[in-house]
Amino acid sequence: MADSVAAMLILALLLVVITLMARATIAGGTMMDLASKAAFDRAEDRARTNISVTSVTASGTSVTVKLKNTGATSVADFDKMDFIISYVSSNATVITRLTHTAGTLAADQWKRTSISPDTLEPNTWNESETLTLDALLGNTLDSASTGTVAVVTPHGVDALGFFTVP
Questions:
Q1: pLDDT tens digits for 126-155?
Q2: Comparing C-alpha atoms, which of 80, 55, 81, 51 is closest to residue 66?
């Protein structure tokens, strides 16, 4: 009798362990599937994103960049974009990542000024639309110097523009 009770307890323990292992395997597989789908979706958005710099104008401490969305992905979360600029001030090269603002520009900040034409989805930068960004630098640009602007979308797609200070 004692042997059968011990066997039943061992069998019950074995069933519980097998059930828990099966549930863990299923849950892990589901999480891996969801992560794979999210990675694929991000890669697809990145592949469909393309931008190009159409013009960069700079003087004093201000810079204006015009970008064209030549891809099929829209951009609405401008605060997740990067704006990096390299320029010469007081005969020293300055490389700065500017921070985004929606309000009044302060030193080393940039903001979205306009989207043209903004008819499809207001405040969203869609395909074939031109985005204008204004930046205010913390240092004055040297006259007759050159600089580089890099703008990166939230999907990680970048565009480079070059300028000469008058």
A1: 999 999 999 999 999 999 999 999 999 998
A2: 55
